[in-house]
Amino acid sequence: MRTESPESPGIASARKATPRTIVTWTLVALVGGAGWSVLALARGENVSAAWMVAAALGTYAIAYRFYAKFIAYKVLKVDKTRATPAERLNNGIDFHPTDRRVLLGHHFAAIAGAGPLVGPVLAAQMGYLPGTIWIIVGVIFAGAVQDMVVLFFSTRRDGRSLGQMAREEIGPFGGAAALLATFAIMIILLGVLALVVVNALAQSPWGTFSIGMTIPIALLMGFYLRVLRPGRVAEVSLIGVALLLLALVAGRWVAESSWAGTFTLAPSTLVIWLVAYGFIASILPVWMLLAPRDYLSTFMKIGTIALLALGVVIALPTLKMDAVTSFARHGNGPVFAGSLFPFVFITIACGALSGFHSLISSGTTPKMIQKETQVRMIGYGSMLMESSVAVMALVAACIIDPGLYFAMNAPAGVIGTTVESASHAVAGFGYTISPADLAQAAHQVEEQTLLSRTGGAPTLAVGVSEIFSKVTGGSLRAFWYHFAIMFEALFILTALDAGTRVGRFMLQDMLGNVYRPFKNVSWKPGLVITSAIVSALWGYFLWVGVHEPLGGINQLFPIFGISNQLLAAVALAVCTTLLVKSGRLKWAWITGVPLLWDATVTLTASYQKVFSSDPRVGFFKQRSIYQDGIDAGKVLPPAKSMDDMHTVVTNSTVDGILSAILAVLVVVVIADAARVCVRHIRRPALSTLSETPYVESKIVAPAGLIPTREEKEEEAEEAERDAVGAETGG
């Protein structure tokens, strides 16, 4: 194994700052600093959402330019002369050197699911300031660092998965805990993602039709690229986007026609359709549905967020939510129960730190990356892009009337089912909104009702329509609302079908230890059986969420956040262990500090969800109270029947047990990783690294989106050599 020194040719040296770069980065810092100053100091006055965007973008730029570069070149010592697995093991199937721009789009599409859309919207009940701080600070020092470091170490190990690295570098005990955690988290994540889709589309014929039409559009694109016009990416892109917009417009026609009843589906019906879709998408060839949908969603994700940021700068909407609400101090919020610490961090989850990303950074991406020097752009940069999605989601939630926000996000058991009861309940929260205003808000976006549209997606859609309609005119408010619903559902369905497929692979791998044919992922009986099992497992959580009297998303999202942060703890523990074992002990704090913070937050949240005496927080206390009610023959609100009472008892029991198991898995993984690190520090000779030997790279490719002058010269020289070789037959 070759070890590079800072002076080695493959390691980039620091370039001397020029007056122009000094002025440029000083201005960037001033913009970001001004944004933070206004957000932190403004009290009792209108604050423009543009300051939140300025704080985010300025901070992202500084972090990427300096902190990410420091980690990549000083700590990890990325080597442009070292061949990646994509180059060494290129087989045109799993391993294939992919253009950095294409890979950036793939990686972003794979990691960006519902989390950065939903979590910040729910966390808005704490106020705009806590969420903004954690989303931006968390991604810089934790989330983006995790993604980049996992990608680097996986690339150095032939693209091995997080679980494989845990088994090899920590040991079989910690590795087994990591595998169990990964599969459990995948199932919980998929159930919550599907619940967001159900809450967004229930009783919405416009949204249901538009989303339904994206399936045949994706199938058409798949066959177009595979059979009709192979390689015609530009053509199929134009066709796909045009058909998407047509589906959106047609959704309005359908909603106003006699077909409206056909596409007005109850939540239970949507559950069945989504489970069936997940199963079918998991067994179809990847080129037929998954790949074209992923490609379509990338256009929608990046384009919409960029337009939303531009809309904020043009429209300059003000933040109507308080900077810090009373719910942050008392923990009695109607959207979710619990105090600022730890639940704002658990709720925001993916927007700042996401363990799920480690599965992608140690999955497809390390098998496709051309150069080690690209881990900074793809790993760190993609996570900054996702964090910007979270910021825009928080903006959208905080610019709408707080009364409308709480009426949309509190469960029906708390606010009732009429605009009158909702108005009265919201007044009890300390905010005011009249029944007429609630009815008008629904009418403006052409929905029957906006009450208890929990899950974050409808709230984000209302905020998006508010911003865009200020730019394009109020007459298009309904169009923008349903555009946002389709945008969010595309976000989520991409993760839903891809996640089901990944879950199938994981289950096939585990069952293959018992019955070997399952190891072959293309074995049709195993493919169908494992797809059915995975779909049924997350379908159970979806069904539970839909029929949860206490509000499904309110109950399940803390479990989702805890499990996702658990996986982040696993990833950070593996990264810290690898930093120590590879001779980078003095830099172990880079992942070690985020690991300690994440573990503290996760274990505190798990403890409270299991043992809290507040029935709105503690699952077992909740179970005890409702079980006592059943024993006494009483129906306790918000349950409406004895069946609801039994449902609460069952769900609280399952949620409590899951929280306890996940907490134990966190402790096992971290403890085993700490043991390995201490042993290495005391007796380094006992440690082994599974890093693959150095092989010189023949590929010439830039590290970032825009090539430097030196990289352009290298590319020109490479092109000239190729031309000479072609002429001479070499």
Automatic annotation (TrEMBL):
Name assigned to this protein: Carbon starvation CstA family protein
Chain positions covered by the region annotation Disordered: 707-730
Record's bilayer topology term: Multi-pass membrane protein
Organism field: Streptomyces sp. R35
Transmembrane parts of this sequence: 21-42, 48-67, 108-127, 133-153, 173-198, 204-224, 236-255, 270-290, 302-319, 339-360, 380-400, 479-500, 521-544, 556-580, 587-607, 657-678
Pfam families the UniProt entry points to: CstA (PF02554)
Gene Ontology terms describing biological process: cellular response to starvation
The CstA N-terminal domain, residue ranges: 49-605
Lineage: Bacteria, Bacillati, Actinomycetota, Actinomycetes, Kitasatosporales
Keywords, sorted A to Z: Cell membrane, Membrane, Transmembrane, Transmembrane helix, Transport
Gene Ontology cellular component terms for the protein in this record: plasma membrane
InterPro entries given in the database record: CstA, CstA_N
Localization per record: Cell membrane
Family: Belongs to the peptide transporter carbon starvation (CstA) (TC 2.A.114) family.
Main location: membrane
